[in-house]
Amino acid sequence: MKNIVLIGFMGTGKTSTGRMLAARLGAAFIDMDQRIEEETGMSIPAMFEKKGESFFRSREKQLVRRLSARRNAVISTGGGTVKDPENVAMLHRDGVIICLSASTDAVLERTVRRGQRPVLDRADQGDRREAIEKLMNEREALYKQADFTVDTSELSPLQVVETILRYL
Ligand code: S3P
């Protein structure tokens, strides 16, 4: 089986969907953010704070390189993995790329806890909706590089998995 790669904005359900999809397919599940945290022994917010975003992005790219050399895995990327075109090319080479999308309201609700998403936490609490909309717009074209997209706003993780399985 080719790798199945989930891309998309923060709070679109990449991790929960990926885990369930992998279980359904009997495939390995790899959550990139979690793997980077394990490998560095640091949480992502701590990494951004102590080492800077560029350190995180370089660990992310190293991991993409390693993962694109394997098969039979469901891979949940981080929301910004697609910012680097080389990452997208590597993930596309032997993988089907699926984008999970969601409305601003859904993302706002699902990322409501601060301290977990450093990219959004830079904005003041009141500006969080604006920060989400701005970043979503900036990244729209990047997420469109997927083979197909599933809007998860109104769906449970199980329904998202069923939708993906119909597409595959
Ligand atoms: C990021 C999204 C996060 C994580 C990091 C940066 C982004 O992943 O990789 O905080 O730039 O969108 P999730 O999409 O899993 O929250």
Automatic annotation (TrEMBL):
<keyword id="KW-0547">Nucleotide-binding</keyword>
<keyword id="KW-0808">Transferase</keyword>
<comment type="similarity">
    <text>Belongs to the shikimate kinase family.</text>
</comment>
<feature type="binding site">
    <location>
        <begin position="11"/>
        <end position="16"/>
    </location>
    <ligand>
        <name>ATP</name>
    </ligand>
</feature>
<feature type="binding site">
    <location>
        <position position="139"/>
    </location>
    <ligand>
        <name>substrate</name>
    </ligand>
</feature>
<feature type="binding site">
    <location>
        <position position="57"/>
    </location>
    <ligand>
        <name>substrate</name>
    </ligand>
</feature>
<dbReference type="GO" id="GO:0009073">
    <property type="term" value="P:aromatic amino acid family biosynthetic process"/>
</dbReference>
<feature type="binding site">
    <location>
        <position position="33"/>
    </location>
    <ligand>
        <name>substrate</name>
    </ligand>
</feature>
<dbReference type="InterPro" id="IPR000623">
    <property type="entry name" value="Shikimate_kinase/TSH1"/>
</dbReference>
<dbReference type="Pfam" id="PF01202">
    <property type="entry name" value="SKI"/>
</dbReference>
<dbReference type="InterPro" id="IPR027417">
    <property type="entry name" value="P-loop_NTPase"/>
</dbReference>
<keyword id="KW-0479">Metal-binding</keyword>
<feature type="binding site">
    <location>
        <position position="15"/>
    </location>
    <ligand>
        <name>Mg(2+)</name>
    </ligand>
</feature>
<dbReference type="InterPro" id="IPR023000">
    <property type="entry name" value="Shikimate_kinase_CS"/>
</dbReference>
<dbReference type="InterPro" id="IPR031322">
    <property type="entry name" value="Shikimate/glucono_kinase"/>
</dbReference>
<keyword id="KW-0057">Aromatic amino acid biosynthesis</keyword>
<keyword id="KW-0460">Magnesium</keyword>
<protein>
    <recommendedName>
        <fullName>Shikimate kinase</fullName>
        <ecNumber>2.7.1.71</ecNumber>
    </recommendedName>
</protein>
<comment type="function">
    <text>Catalyzes the specific phosphorylation of the 3-hydroxyl group of shikimic acid using ATP as a cosubstrate.</text>
</comment>
<dbReference type="GO" id="GO:0008652">
    <property type="term" value="P:amino acid biosynthetic process"/>
</dbReference>
<keyword id="KW-0067">ATP-binding</keyword>
<dbReference type="GO" id="GO:0005829">
    <property type="term" value="C:cytosol"/>
</dbReference>
<comment type="subunit">
    <text>Monomer.</text>
</comment>
<dbReference type="GO" id="GO:0000287">
    <property type="term" value="F:magnesium ion binding"/>
</dbReference>
<dbReference type="GO" id="GO:0004765">
    <property type="term" value="F:shikimate kinase activity"/>
</dbReference>
<comment type="pathway">
    <text>Metabolic intermediate biosynthesis; chorismate biosynthesis; chorismate from D-erythrose 4-phosphate and phosphoenolpyruvate: step 5/7.</text>
</comment>
<keyword id="KW-0028">Amino-acid biosynthesis</keyword>
<dbReference type="GO" id="GO:0005524">
    <property type="term" value="F:ATP binding"/>
</dbReference>
<keyword id="KW-0418">Kinase</keyword>
<feature type="binding site">
    <location>
        <position position="117"/>
    </location>
    <ligand>
        <name>ATP</name>
    </ligand>
</feature>
<dbReference type="GO" id="GO:0009423">
    <property type="term" value="P:chorismate biosynthetic process"/>
</dbReference>
<feature type="binding site">
    <location>
        <position position="79"/>
    </location>
    <ligand>
        <name>substrate</name>
    </ligand>
</feature>
<keyword id="KW-0963">Cytoplasm</keyword>
